[in-house]
């Protein structure tokens, strides 16, 4: 015991508000616990890609088909027939149908024979109703829209930890889809599942950001992104070997049930605890972090701090009431950041998933293509982590958005004869938008103060969901011009890059905790630009003493 005390005293004492700056064992474990649900939830969120995937089918001919019909009978006409039309029979002269039993005319089809029953298309009899099958994914994304706003409020009101656990476990409601035979009940469950489970993403990302230091913010975003990509890849692998939709649903919706176990391992964000009057819990969490990471602090000083003392230590003394949307609307700086961040999140959702949707036009197996589209994102995270840690947040994002826009435009206008060049530009566009995806997630969280971070991140995530909801509709534009989808991607990306020039750099800066802090540093920056040089300035031009 004496040796441990001597060892602790030999270390340089760290201020209480710097406890979380050291990236140690505590952060590694908490990041693992926070990312684990994301792997499972991602498989749930993209289930409709294969569960509601299209099937081959043909019209059923009652006069010819047996009770258990086959998809490719020997008597089927030797002509290409629209699968929504029924070939008319000649006046029957025998009981046995042959290729010559058909008149060459067609009738409206009312019954179908499916090649397999691997997807809900067969189970819910959705043949020749593409709007219904496509609506499943759209309904899911609508649920995600509302989830992002609701979960942001839940995260700020009740905490990051309970929101993460509740939303993750709640997504298991998707199990009920395997028992329904009604299309409308199916899409209702799909929406409720997205509405409940969608909050796990934002809660986990906020928690990871707030328990780390300045140097680990980008790392937290990269790790969380890899958890999502891992979920996408695993889902494609599972679907490849378990194509039957009911079995697939049971496999992917079971793991989140066990996320409740993390209730005993995940710790709440100390920043949230301090802001919400839980000083004793915050002190216990901070002591636990310091012990786990071997950080030497003045324990007695921390123990003796009351709620007001803790807020002063973390520069939250101006936080006298719970800040809400009304306070956001009163701050022009916050509103500017919300609008720009929301549009940038919309763009990454729109372009990222738009490119994934259009990747299905590449030749090859659909499962393999989906995996390749996911794998293309992996190197993008490494680029994001390196560039945003070495250069900063703004410049890599600005260059990334503009470069992605140019690559999308280039891919659209390259002649069809240069297939290899179109594919190369497409893949590089996917790579660059992956860099922006991770970067903008971390950057937007750094732009917002702790008091309303969850709520504002929810608004930005809502914008991202709108983009991902519109992305599957872009192939419709091909009927007008094949270059239109890519030009829409180009325009959104370049506009996002231009808007980011209006936001501040946040690299190596402490996290803001209140809207008041944002207003103060904004005023200081205006004075600096007028020529009033302040002592203790950093690269943003404000006094660090107003923040943690």
TrEMBL record:
Residues 529-548 are annotated as: Disordered. It is a multi-pass membrane protein. It comes from the Eukaryota. Keywords: Membrane, Transmembrane, Transmembrane helix. It comes from Iphiclides podalirius (scarce swallowtail). The chain crosses the membrane at residues 31-51, 183-209, 221-242, 248-266, 338-355, 367-388, 395-414, 420-444, 456-477, 483-502. It is found in: Membrane. Its main location: membrane. It holds the Pfam family Sugar_tr. This is Major facilitator superfamily (MFS) profile domain-containing protein. Residues 93-509 form the Major facilitator superfamily (MFS) profile domain. Coiled coil: none annotated.
